[in-house]
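Fold it.
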Amino acid sequence: MIRDLGPYSSRNTSKGALIEETGQIIAALSSGLPLEEVRKRALEGNILKQRTRISRKRVWDLIHYRLLTHKTSWVLEDLKKTYLIKGRHSSDFITLLYLHYCLRDKLTFDFVTQIIWQSWNQRKLDISRNDILAFLDTLSEAQPQVARWTLSSRRKLAGSILTALRDFGLLKGSQKKKIHKPPLPLSTAEHLLHILISEGLRGKEPVDDPAWRLFLLSADEVSNVLSQLSQAKLIRFERSGHTVVLDTPANWSSLS
């Protein structure tokens, strides 16, 4: 399973988006090095450049968790292909990293698809650490472990998540952050749909899934994106009222 289903974790308390570091890891894997060799070189400082081994291991563990722990081979292949063709700083690559950053952390996923999504639709574009802290305050019953986090830990976590979301393009601003609609390249849309199909969603379910809210897409905008994928002959998609026809490649049903 690619998507983190909880409970909420404080794993993203530090290190942020790790766009450069993830690019370095994907570059090494794209060169043909086996995973264990990449890990060894990363921890030794030949790939990752953090000053201490402890810090390099923390970065490796986060990247490994976000992209590799679930051992879904086509996810890694999409990342390598996008890195090699589009480059580390392309919106195609960065939006893939953003997608997996959110999918692999339920707290971040829920904050974006609930709080930021609601604010975007209400045209309340300012977002701050207090919004995450307030969100955490509402979770004491549903997520009892959150109540055990210190205020200092919550503040650090909130700041780290907001910084990562800014680096990924969902927010803009250094001190005062505002919601900004990120791009959704067609290749990333195809990748997201592949994930939803691999989770077993069918019919209207992939179209209505809240994961599209990570890119602040309305229902009509989701249909438009799927129509573009259909026009590109990557899938078959038709929608008439509440009726949806969605056919995807047969091998998308596999989790591996």
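Residues 89 and 204 are 33 Å apart (CA to CA).
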